[in-house]
From TrEMBL:
The chain crosses the membrane at residues 49-66. The lineage of its organism: Eukaryota, Metazoa, Ecdysozoa, Nematoda, Chromadorea. This is Uncharacterized protein. Keywords: Membrane, Transmembrane, Transmembrane helix.
């Protein structure tokens, strides 16, 4: 039982109840940020931004993969052309005529 009472006391210690007296009536109030944090009102907003972050990271990762595959493919084609040129022992303008299709 003491554990439950301790948890309630800790929870209530973080919640600040501000009171003012307006025309003889006691009015409780809190800052907007405290209410938003206490009731989790910004969770949907945070989840939306997290979704954007995930989409951006996945898109960037896909871009890196595709770009590296394109560069590696071009490099392999260049190596194949160079090997063909060496095999045929071409030089000068004849080197430009050889292309792998």
């Amino acid at each position: 039982m003491d554990l439950l009472e301790e948890q309630i006391r800790i929870r209530n210690a973080t919640v600040k109840n501000r009171e003012m007296i307006v025309e003889g009536q006691k009015v409780k109030w809190a800052y907007r940020s405290e209410l938003v944090g206490r009731h989790g009102l910004d969770n949907n907003h945070r989840n939306t931004w997290m979704a954007y972050l995930v989409i951006i990271l996945v898109g960037f990762g896909a871009f890196v993969v595709v770009k590296s595959q394109v560069v590696m493919g071009r490099r392999q084609e260049m190596d194949a052309r160079e090997a063909l040129r060496k095999e045929l022992q071409l030089s000068g303008d004849d080197r430009k005529k050889v292309a792998v299709v």
